[in-house]
Design brief:
This protein has 3 domains: 7-209, Hypothetical protein af1432 (Orthogonal Bundle), CATH 1.10.3210; 212-330, no CATH class; 333-409, no CATH class. It has helices spanning 7-10, 23-32, 35-39, 58-79, 91-100, 109-119, 128-139, 154-159, 183-189, 203-206, 211-234, 240-248, 254-269, 272-285, 311-329, 332-356, 369-375, 382-394, 398-409; strands at 287-291, 305-309. It has 19 helices and 2 strands. It has a two-stranded antiparallel sheet. The chain has 420 residues and is mainly α. The termini are far apart.
Length: 420
């Protein structure tokens, strides 16, 4: 019996069947067997899915994040005296959070996310994390499909809630928000308790996270700051010359200069995988735990403790992320792919919005029947229609989005026997 968790943490918004598994194992298993999780195998992580067979996709990235998250839980349980055999952060819950953290990301990576948010501005925007919450609460079916959503536990919903500010509460909502209609999930997670004055909408509120969410976030940072570096080096995007040129334009402190020198040592050794795998262990062992007091700490241990990271390792992680952003993600090669992804998604979105929201003279049946039926509901508003269209596009894999684009706009592509 793990006394870290209380009945409050296991509660669901609807009744769900129990079996031989713990509630958090049920959460995890429903993610693994979901369509949304399988689609991650064909969604961009760094490089366009399918362009290189052996580089990471969103799926392999999520699996690596889950392994790191479980390892952090095991490390804290064994090494930190506050935890014991009967009092610990549940690794199954953290694994579920890690496997779910990218479920809502659309095709073409963060480029697709930023474009969909721009296109959805008048319909409460689009945000990858908000979309992940939408998927687990409203899309993934529970056993037998009897309930709306997978009926997740309160602790699991909270574990993926990196952001808690609603779209309408932000002045210029570019990212890091929830959809306005997701307030009901905030109410569920926090038992309808109002946020205290110090947790104002925006950065301070978004930083208020459960211990499991903090572990998931650090596991994600660890994975993409280290593992994505390996892919970038192997693809030729990160070379000694490029790193030297980048470092010359930065105002690096002594520690940052030492981290760059360490990268040169790794490049000289040629054994990138082993070197960065060892660093993953260092990032895991940089984790510590502290007690805290807040308006939820009387209800759940998930808010009585917080994750703390060794400042030196945090600094190293931030340097790698800056390097990858400047040299890899902002490179002309990837920016050209961003442009192409933007162009395709924008045209698909415009066609669907014009067909289903702008009420053209001739309406075409362009979507699967279940979506057509939902869009034809008598009382459906334009914002709801736009969200259904956005869900459809966000759920596409890279290759499926390309295929739909070709079918809509390339006269020489597709036939009547193709399935949408």
């Amino acid at each position: 019996m793990n006394t870290f968790y209380k009945p409050f943490d296991y509660e669901c918004q609807q009744e769900r069947e129990s079996d031989y598994r713990t509630p958090f194992q049920q959460d995890r298993d429903r993610i693994i067997y979901s369509f949304a999780f399988r689609r991650l195998q064909a969604k961009t992580q760094v490089f366009l899915s399918g362009e290189y067979d052996f580089y990471r996709t969103r799926l392999t990235h999520s699996i690596e994040v889950a392994q790191i998250g479980r390892s952090i839980c095991n490390y804290l349980r064994k090494k930190k005296p506050v935890f014991s055999e009967n009092f610990y952060v549940d690794p199954d819950l953290v694994e579920a959070a890690c496997l779910s953290h990218d479920l809502g990301h659309p095709p073409f990576g963060h480029a697709g996310e930023s474009l969909l948010n721009h296109l959805m501005k008048r319909f409460s925007g689009f945000e990858g994390n908000a979309q992940s919450l939408r998927i687990i609460t409203e899309a993934i079916s529970s056993r037998g499909g009897k309930n709306r959503g997978m009926v997740p536990t309160r602790a699991f919903v909270d574990s993926i809630l990196k952001y808690k500010t609603l779209y309408s509460q932000m002045e210029n909502p570019e990212n890091h928000f929830l959809y306005n209609d997701q307030k009901k999930y905030l109410d569920f997670v926090f038992n309808k308790r109002p946020f205290p004055a110090e947790l104002t909408p925006g950065k301070s509120l978004n930083k208020f996270r459960s211990i499991e969410c903090e572990i998931m976030d650090w596991a994600d940072d660890t994975s993409y700051s280290l593992n994505d570096m390996v892919d970038s080096i192997k693809a030729g995007f990160l070379t000694r010359f490029k790193i030297e040129k980048w470092a010359a334009d930065q105002k690096l402190n002594a520690n940052e200069s030492r981290f760059v020198d360490g990268l040169f040592d790794i490049l000289r050794s040629g054994n990138f995988d082993a070197a960065f795998s060892q660093k993953i262990g260092h990032f895991i062992q940089a984790c510590g735990i502290e007690k805290r007091q807040n308006f939820m700490s009387d209800l759940t241990n998930r808010y009585r403790y917080k994750l703390v990271i060794d400042p030196m390792i945090l600094q190293e992680c931030e340097l790698y992320k800056r390097l990858s952003l400047d040299v890899v993600f902002n490179s002309p090669q990837l920016k050209q792919l961003v442009f192409k992804g933007h162009f395709m998604l924008r045209r698909i979105f415009d066609v669907l919005v014009n067909n289903y929201i702008q009420t053209p003279q001739i309406k075409l049946l362009l979507l699967p029947k279940d979506l057509e039926d939902a869009l034809d509901a008598e009382d459906i508003q334009d914002e709801k229609k736009a969200r259904i269209i956005c869900d459809y596009i966000a759920g596409m894999t890279d290759r499926f989005a390309i295929r739909i684009y070709k079918r809509l706009f390339d006269p020489d592509f597709g036939s009547i026997v193709d399935l949408i």
